[in-house]
Each structure stands twice: as C-alpha cells, then as structure tokens.
Sequence to fold (666 residues):
Amino acid sequence: MTEDNTATATVVGEGAPQLTTRLSLFRRMTELRVFEKRVYDIFLQGLVKGTTHLSLGQEAIAAGFGEAMRSDDWTFATYRGHAHTVSRGVPFAPIMAELMGRRGGLMAGKGGSMHLTSVEHGMMGSYAIVGAHIPIATGAAFSAKYRKSGQVSVCFFGDGTTNIGAFHEALNFAAVWKLPIVFVCENNLYMEYTAISAVTAVEHPAADRAGAYGLERIIVDGNDADAMYEIANKTLDRARVGGGPSLIEALTYRHAGHSRADPGKYRPDEEVAAWIAKDPIPNYRKRLLDAGVDESVLDRIEKEVAESVDIATELAKASPPPGEDLILKDLWSDGSSTWRN
Amino acid sequence: MAELSLREAVARAIAQEMRRDPNVVFLGEDVAAAGGVFKTTTGLLEEFGPERVIDTPISEQAILGTIMGAAMTGLRPIAEIMYSDFFAVCWDLVVNQMAKTRYMTNGQVSLPLVMKTGNGGGLRFGAQHSQSIENWAMAVPGIKVVMPSTPVDLVGLFAASVRDDDPVLFLEQKALYTVKGDVPDGDVCFELGKAVVRRMGADAAVVTIGTMVPRALEAAEILAKEHGIDLTVIDLRSLIPLDTACILEHVVRTGRLFTVEENPRVVGWGAEVTSIVADECFFDLDAPLVRITTPYIPLPSAGELEDKTIPSVELIVETILKRMV
Fold:
C-alpha cells in the first residue's frame, strides 16, 4: 500500500471490492468474531482446558486473506490460529471439538488450540514456537516453485516474531530464491505482555526490516477488511506470477489479553478505547450500510452465523472424549509409535 | 560393483535417489558448487542442476524449515547440516516441529525428509565440530536415527531413509569417510531397523554402531588371537528403529553384553540397550552389563587427548579383558 506510517488506506469507492465480495468479507469477520466469543464463553464454563489465544479485534486480516486465497494455497499460522483456520473454510464444529479435547476434534484431541491443522483445507498448521513456522512456510513456497504449481504460501505471525532469528533466516531465503510466499505480520503492538516498541530497534517491526531483504515496505490498516483484501490480492498475484515474496505489516489490536491467562492490564485505558473504536467489524458494517446495503441483509448474515456457531457448539459438546487407543497412534507414517522390535 | 570410499558413497547414494525420484531435492551449505566441505557431494550439481542441488546461506533454521515445508507439500527433500554440532542452532525444527507434527495433527501430515550430517570425532576439530549427537536425537519421539559404518551400508540405508515417509537423521561419521568397500551397481536399498552381525563369537555380544564398529572388530581380532576370547560384534546401523531382537538373541546366546558408544556416557544409547537387556533377559546373563563410552566431558582437540577420550581399540580390548574374568 502506501509508505505512510499508519493506517488509513481505506479502500472505498472505485477501488472497493464487488458487493458480493464485501458481503463475504463481512460474513467471514462475523464468523471469526462470533466463533471466538463463543470460545471465550465455553472456556469460562470449563469446557476448554489449557489455553487459548484469541484474535478478537484482528479479524479483518484473516478475513481479507481467506477471501483472496486460492483453495489450494497454504496457510501457516501461529498459536493464535483459530481465525485463520475458520477463514480457510474449516467447519466450526471440529475446531470447537478440538479445543474441548474431543474425539470429533480436527485432530481428535491430539493437537489442541495452539496446533489447529486441516491439510484438506490448506490450513497447514498452527505453530506454537514463535518463528518456527516461518521457515516451514518458506519450504512450502519452495515446493510450489519447484513443482510449478502456482500455489502461494501465506505465513501469518505476530509483531514479536520479527525479533527471532528464524524470521530473518527465512526472509532472506525467500528473497534469494524469489519464492511464492506472503509474510503477514499482524502487529497488535504487544509481544505477549510487553509493548513491541520497547524491545524493537525500529518503529515498524516488520516493514522497517523489509528493505534488508530487498522487499517493498508495506504497512496496511489491519482493521480494514477492504484494504486487507486488496493487499492480499496484490501480493498473492505477485507471488503467483514469479514476482517473489512480500512482507506485509498489518496494524491491528487484540481486544483481549495475550492468552486466557492475561487480562491485558499493561495496556493504557485510552489506548484500548481508541482501538475498540477502530473495531473492524462495526466499522465495516457501517461502511456497507453507507454504501447502500440493506440492513436486513447484514442482520440475516449475523443471524445465520450465530445459529451455525450454536449448532457447532452443541455438536462439539456431544462428541465423546478421545479413546485411549489414539495415544500410541500416528507417531510414524505406518500409524504406529513402534521404535523397537 | 565398484570399490568406493564412504565419502564417495554419499554422492553415489544421493544420485541414486535423485535419478529415481524427481521429487528428491538436496540443499545445504556449500553442497552444490563446492561439492561439500567434506567433498561428499561432488558432481551432483553438474548432474542434477541448480534447481535440485542448492547452495544455501548459513541459516540452519531456514534449511530445516525449508525441507519440512517442502516435505509436507509433496517433495522428498534432503538437507545437509554440515556438522552435527550445528543441530543445536536448529534443534527446535527437529524436536518441536518435525518430530511432533504427524502425531499432533492426528496423522494428517507426512514428513518424508532426510537430514544428513557429519557426526562424531577423531579429526581433532575440537569440542564444537566433533560431537556425537545420536543420543540427543534418539531421545526425541518421532525421529529415526541412522548411522552406517560401511560404504555399501551408507548407500543402502540412505536410500531407505529417502524412501521412508518419516523424518530421518542420517549420521555420517566423519572419521569413516576414508573407509573403503565394495558397492554393487544398480539399485541398492536396505531396510531400516535391521542390525548386522559383523563377527560371530561365543563368549560375549558387543553391540555398537558407526565409527565404533571397525574399532570393535579390530579389538575382537586382537582378543581372539592373543587371549582366546571369541566375540560377537553387532552393528546396529540404526538406533531408531532399534533391532532389539538381534541384541537379545546374541546376549542370550553368549550371556554377556558390552556396548561401545561414541556418545558421552550419561544417557548414551547404551543405557537404553542395557536397560532393555537387564529387563528382558536378566536370567540369561552370566556377568554385569558393561558400557564402554566417551566420558562425560566435551571433546578435547589435541590428538593425544582426543584419542584417550573416544573409545579406542586399546580401551575396548582392555575393558573387555578386565571384565571377562
């Protein structure tokens, strides 16, 4: 997008996507919001153990890319991966069941919240070691280029990831080999509990590093679904025609803390309030109404999404716990975990 | 049939697999144009071209991440990590990513990849270029650990590793690169997890792998000739999978077990082997189980020190003589 420091590149008017696309973006964001609010609720009910890392407030990024990606493109996400999983079209129920540790879960309860994966949907994994998936996503891009498949690898990560070595190694690799990959930094201003600005030598943790790898400096309003959709198309197209990698810094904010353990008290009230006012979903709703969309259309989308999340929640709750027969399965490709004869 | 050094067998093995399967690619530091720092990969770039034989920057995390991402999307990549010591800078990719992904995803993801590396001491390289990391890898559920001791085994086990659908750590013992042996023409591929009895004897089973195999065999000849002790020497060839059946058979037959290990003593692979033997054939034993290992220290550089550190023929002879009484 622009070389501006923030975030107002709203794409309305002539550059705006088709109405059907915009309604789809609205539906996607609504799905992510309603789904994750439900995850929050059922966590409080004790139905989800361990931890969760929600993307509440950051939905426009996953929605924009989910809308723009080809069905055989690949997503690589972090432990904050629910939104990216939903946005690739993975049904709610198996995700919900995975969070609850049920047999009907996406990975039958063997992965959990931080490892959501659905290969058949191109959701190639959620990785819980910060930065580890950046070279792995790069390897998928290597494979696409080698096989001339036209597929693009899209790798999502947080601002904190830009300070780990694997990020820099992989960016250099991707740039040297001109790989079909889009790196998407979701800069929510905090690496876990610490302001990213307090621990980073540059103002924009991703964009200000792009030049080091010969890449364009891209900053985009990560709370604007139209802007995200536009930059997704631009960078996916570039990758697909052999133009090499892109590094996007999408400015956003998480409405909740880092994880379930974190109330997020380290963030100033005024800052939180300012970003809540920039909530991607109500703002997009207003934009669609201003563009002449009938409110009943949006109401219906919201109602349909709420109903399908309700149904999924009940399906997940009805799924039994995983059987012990799974414990020793699938370490190896023969389905076993046998290491000796 | 050709007589090859173990060094030459590496390129022979990679070429065999690359000719067989166009999805096999090979990357690493200095592996293409330079032919490898140990000259193990000479000629591969010329035969297979720069799209399949690739020089990388010094970025071990990117190297292993790349082969993992490539393996999960349809390729059968091979990466070289120049010295096994360097796995310490990319161990996350091995331990947290490659090893766990199939299990965590309930079998959705296959990772048919090989990490080949120069392993072990004996070349006076000092503590950061001489380690034996087979026991690190063996401790991580989900990684196969293979270590050939002869040129033909290098080719056959490497082919099996490339064709395997799981991640394999393939350890090339730097001290064995000059060892020569016959390698048949045509397709050579063995099975992982099958030990080989290199010498048959009645008095004790010596279980070993890699660089320690020729040393154990030499020690066995000395003990036979000078002391009338007749040893069985087993070359495990892989630690995961582990050919426990072979070990137990020969321990039961001879009543005694010695392990000869290059890795440092504490939590070396021999501890697992002796534990299995103690548990499963205790009443067939005639004597305590004995482990001959490198001590619990980093490796010193000077020849006089390194030779007294890694188990030598002399140490093996001396220990077995002392413990056979």
